[in-house]
């Protein structure tokens, strides 16, 4: 990776959960084939959180599109 190029100039958006459109619950994206990419950049956007709200984010690995 060239240190003079911003990661956002080389990134492709592949999974999104818009924080402004959702109530408190669990939300996930579909499985993404990472074999197409050399590197990743994960950006977590919280939106407006309530007083006792928490935000948990995780990246999971699977060997097929079903999540196994």
How does this structure look, described?
The chain is largely without helices or strands and 68 residues long. It has one domain. It is built from 1 helix and no strands. It starts with 6 loop residues before the first helix and ends in a 58-residue tail after the last helix.
Give the structure's gist in a few sentences.
This protein has 1 helix and no strands. The protein has 68 residues and is mostly loops.
Describe the protein's topology.
Layout: H1 7-10
Mean pLDDT: 84
Please report the distance between the alpha carbons of the first and last residues.
31 Å
What is the approximate shape? flat
The rounded Rg comes to: 15 Å
Q: Which properties best describe this structure?
A:
68 residues, 6% helix, single chain, 1 helix, 0% strand, little secondary structure
